[in-house]
Amino acid sequence: MLEDAAKRCRQHIVKMVHKAGAGHPGGSLSAIDLIVGLYGTQMRIDASNPNWTDRDRFVMSKGHASPAVYSILHEIGFLSQSDLDGFRTLGSVCQGHVDMKWTDGVDFSAGSLGMGLSFGIGCALASRMDEKEYNTWVMMGDGETQEGQVWEALMSASYHNLNNLNIIIDRNRIQNDDFVDVQMEIGDIASKVASFGWAVKEIDGHDMELVIDALQWASSTASPCAIIAHTVKGKGVSFMEDNPSFHGKAPNDEELMLALEELQ
């Protein structure tokens, strides 16, 4: 079951970040149900041929949530347990931010926020120009939508009617320094994105049935689609949930044990 896979991924996430003594557990835990649903139902990929030309592309624009990506890539056979154990170490294929030069199964090298959707547009246009049928999925954070480049990209994708491009916005309401509405509230994202010509659906990003329905909707709609997923930062670990402190902090030994008990 996908819910079981998501629970295993949550365990991988907290273990990776704890072992490294650094990383971003909160946004990884908020996003993982969406990522598991996506890879479990929509993504056409092949672990034995990671550079398959016709594979679907996944762009993790909020690349600091790399533990979520590495955990699902491990579950589907791209990465080994030893790869996960090397998270954020020199020379590891699991760097702090996702990097397509280092990691099989990663299609975008992340860094500064706001760039992923523009990269996704390039992938979607390339698919059309090369007469391929692969789809591109982009995941962004809600704090990331404070970046102006995001809105230029939304306008561009609508103008080019990229029906092979879909975005998922992880609306967990917390960014690096504090709650989003303290830093710079972004308001009603759904109506704003819709005003740029996108089809939009809002869901509970932790209800797997709703997640799967939304992903299927996006795959079958003849326009660029946006899923606004309302989530909880740190979902699944009580002391991390809705807690800005765990945006980018590793659990200590005691906290790790508590987290794993809750995730059994």
Blueprint (SSEs and pairs):
Layout: H1 2-20, H2 25-41, E1 57-60, H3 66-75, H4 81-85, H5 116-129, E2 136-141, H6 148-159, E3 165-171, H7 180-184, H8 189-195, E4 199-204, H9 208-220, E5 225-230, H10 253-262
Parallel strand pairs: 1-2, 2-3, 3-5, 4-5
Helix pairs in contact: 1-2, 1-3, 1-10, 2-3, 2-9, 5-6
What does this protein structure show overall?
The protein is an alpha/beta fold and 264 residues long. It has helices at 2-20, 25-41, 66-75, 81-85, 116-129, 148-159, 180-184, 189-195, 208-220, 253-262, and strands at residues 57-60, 136-141, 165-171, 199-204, 225-230. The chain has a single domain (2-262), classed as Thiamin diphosphate (ThDP)-binding fold, Pyr/PP domains (Rossmann fold). Helix content is 42%, strand content 11%. Strands 1-2-3-5-4 form a 5-stranded parallel beta sheet, sandwiched between helices. Strand 2, helix 6 and strand 3 form a beta-alpha-beta unit. Helix 1 (2-20) packs across helix 3 (66-75) and helix 2 (25-41) crosses helix 9. It is globular and about 50 Å long. The mean pLDDT is 97.
Query: DSSP strand (E) fraction?
Result: 5-15%
Q: Major sheet: size, sense and barrel closure?
A: 5 strands, parallel
User: For the CA atoms, what is the radius of gyration?
Assistant: 17 Å
What is the CATH architecture term? 3-Layer(aba) Sandwich
* Shape category: globular
What sequence of helices (H) and strands (E) makes up the elements? HHEHHHEHEHHEHEH
Count of discrete structural domains: 1
Provide the CATH superfamily.
Answer: Thiamin diphosphate (ThDP)-binding fold, Pyr/PP domains
Using the coordinates shown, work out and report the CATH topology: Rossmann fold
Mean pLDDT: 97
CATH class category name:
Alpha Beta
Strand order of the largest sheet: 1-2-3-5-4
Total strand segments: 5
